[in-house]
Design goal:
heterodimer; A: alpha/beta; Rossmann fold; seven-stranded parallel β-sheet; two-stranded parallel sheet; 40% helix; B: alpha/beta; Glycerol-3-phosphate (1)-acyltransferase; seven-stranded mixed β-sheet; two-stranded antiparallel sheet; 12 helices; 9 strands
Chain lengths: 348, 292
């Protein structure tokens, strides 16, 4: 059956990737991308709609386009990217409005996929070595991004209870590394020196960006309901990650590492968001058997994701910046999609 | 961005030719690891190094003797439980070293969260086979990975007790170790240890100082009084004797939501009594603290 899909955050990394992945499959008949700014990647046949960050016009779009699937990729999981206030607006209020539109009476939406993060499990010494989807956090969240993600997940959970007829999928991703994604961890690893906390060498798990997109696509295609952890197989100490990436670890004092490093963070030498502190002490492990037993196959292990990331960094270092070939022009895109003069693909 | 665009088109082109699903077993994922640290943080390389360093302590200083080592299975999960003593307990490294040396299989030592919280110590402890005593961790080790896990049910109450209470087993917590073994379907193997109490006898405890420092207990030991600061790390050369008791199996189905509280407490109490009786037996036979 042909499906009509709406992707949030189409102007961001994940939304853009997701739209491109869906475009390749004719099963997804209509693809709508929602975003705050112009998309940075070229869409073949997807339509792009500009909206504000809390999706106030979403219910009208849903009714007008009769989309049956919403893929909510626009969740901020790195607090260095947006201001604290915007974090709450995007993660909590955005999700709230999105779900309100999806759950309105007469709504055509039958499947909601939400991209969350393993940050919701936190990181503390009392944690189990491996979190399964049903594991509880050991302590209440202390960072803004964790709080907002937990709030958003609560909304998703309530939505699933209130709308038994709609399939709800929630994916919790481990820290992502890959060829293109930029996170505070990837920024740190790309520099000659990288922060660590003295006396701690936590075990971390990573997932490669292609596996993230493939997983989102997989659960969308299979209409899998429920919560799923996502991470590459195996985990490795932070020191090993640093040596694979060829960066030197700079140990920060175990007491108040953030306060010590804050001048360097201000200068842009290090990235050290609050959610990174506990992770760099205690690490985090995820049980990923639920999604693999549903048939998903990873292409990268945790160490493989680190390897993929550092190969891309080396290429960028070696080859210099490629020319920008694509700039979104609203009128041009509309022309290609809707003008009767266009008879073929613009790229031949 | 041209390179991303190209990747996308290439991917599309290949999906037309190559079937999308590749059978799982035919794919060997690349895994560029540099160290052998496992998911528990244990590194066999570090362990081997430590074994080399610890071997003289084990065989020359403590002159460890085992009895009934054959009762510990060579494969499959089992929960080893032992009495715990000495301000900085030597029983854990002795048991782990002995079993790894004699049976050639790793032992994961479960201990208080305190270790994981402590910088340096926590990392060293994890690299050499330490795991925090979370029930989920024990279950994963025993049931899913079929490993040996070592636990001291007395917890910190064992090593913090004063020398006048030597070889008097403390309370076995709430019997959590029995419940984990039941849930994991693994046997409990009790090990009685004689010698540990005398390696670092606790003369005095300073609970307020311990609380201020955020550690479970702060003991003043005989070693400290005799050797000064070196006493914090140098144990007395007491003769170690270990006796492995018969494995205890519970005829209950594994993986249950919960197990009868009273049954769990009864089993824990029974194991505690057996261990206590064995300790008395061994002490009856012991002629000298230093020569066994």
């Amino acid at each position: 059956m042909a499906r009509r899909v709406l992707v949030t955050g189409a102007d961001t990394f994940w939304g853009g990737r997701m739209v491109q992945a869906l475009e390749a499959d004719p099963e997804f008949e209509v693809i709508l991308g929602l975003g705050l700014r112009n998309p940075s990647v070229q869409f073949e046949r997807a339509e792009f709609v500009r909206t504000d960050q809390t999706y106030s016009i979403l219910s009208r779009i849903v009714t007008a386009t009769q989309v049956d699937t919403i893929i909510h990729t626009f969740m901020v999981v790195d607090s260095t990217l947006v201001a604290r206030r915007a974090l709450h607006e995007i993660n909590v209020i955005g999700t709230l409005n999105l779900l309100a539109a999806a759950g309105a009476s007469g709504s055509p939406v039958r499947h909601v996929v939400v991209k969350s993060s393993s940050l919701v499990y936190g990181s503390s010494p009392e944690d189990p070595n491996t979190f399964s989807e049903t594991s509880m956090r050991s302590h209440p969240p202390r960072t803004a991004v964790e709080r907002s993600l937990i709030d958003a997940e609560g909304l998703v959970h309530d939505f699933a209870v209130d709308n038994p007829g709609t399939t709800v999928t929630l994916l919790r991703f481990a820290n992502v590394l890959g060829t293109d994604i930029v996170t505070s961890i990837s920024k740190n690893l790309s520099r000659p020196v990288c922060p660590s906390i003295f006396g701690y060498d936590p075990l971390l798990q990573f997932v490669e960006e292609d596996d993230v997109v493939r997983a989102l696509e997989f659960v969308t295609r299979e209409r899998l309901p429920g919560v799923f952890n996502l991470a590459g197989a195996g985990r490795l100490p932070w020191s090993e990650v640093a040596s694979i990436c060829g960066t030197k670890l700079v140990p920060l004092p175990p007491l108040h590492p953030r306060r010590t490093i804050s001048p360097l963070v201000t200068l842009g030498i290090f990235e050290f968001p609050p959610e990174l502190e506990d992770l760099l002490r205690y690490g985090r492990g995820l049980d990923t058997t639920k999604l693999t037993s549903a048939g998903f196959e990873y292409r990268y292990t945790s160490a493989g994701a680190v390897g993929s990331y550092i190969r891309a960094v080396r290429l960028r270092r070696g080859a210099g910046r490629p020319p920008t070939s694509y700039i979104y022009e609203h009128d041009v895109e509309q022309f290609f999609r809707h003008s009767s003069s266009v008879v073929g693909s613009p790229d031949g | 961005m041209p390179e991303r665009k190209q990747v996308a088109t290439r991917a599309r082109a290949t999906t037309d030719i190559v079937p999308l699903r590749i059978p799982a077993d035919s794919v060997e994922l690349e895994d560029p690891r540099l160290s052998d640290v496992d998911e528990w943080g244990r590194s066999e390389h570090m362990r081997a190094l430590l074994r080399q360093l610890y071997e003289p302590v084990y065989s020359k200083w403590f002159r460890v003797e085992w009895e009934g080592l054959e009762k510990i299975p060579r494969e499959g999960g089992a929960l080893l439980v032992a009495n715990h003593a000495g301000a900085v307990p030597s029983d854990a490294p002795v048991i782990m070293h002995g079993i790894e040396r004699e049976l050639g299989r790793p032992v994961y030592g479960l201990a208080d969260y305190f270790f994981r919280r402590a910088p340096v110590l926590g990392t060293m402890w994890a690299r050499t086979g330490g795991v925090s005593a979370n029930p989920d961790n024990a279950y994963r080790l025993l049931h899913e990975q079929h490993q040996l896990a070592l636990v001291f049910p007395e917890g910190t109450k064992g090593p913090s007790k004063s020398y006048t209470d030597r070889y008097q087993l403390r309370r076995f917590g709430r019997g959590g170790f029995v419940e984990i073994a039941m849930r994991a379907g693994a046997p409990v193997i009790p090990i009685a240890v004689v010698g540990s109490e005398e390696t670092m006898p606790v003369i005095l405890r300073l609970p307020r100082l311990a609380r201020a420092m955020g550690i479970p207990y702060f003991p003043i030991t005989a070693n400290f009084l005799m050797l000064g600061l070196a006493g914090a790390v140098v144990p007395f050369p007491a003769k170690f004797k270990l006796r492995v008791l018969d494995p205890v199996r519970f005829d209950v189905p594994p993986n249950q939501e919960r197990y009868s509280r009273s049954r769990v407490m009864d089993e824990a109490e029974r194991i505690r009594n057996d261990l206590q009786e064995t300790l008395y037996d061994m002490l009856r036979e012991r002629r000298s603290v230093w020569f066994g």
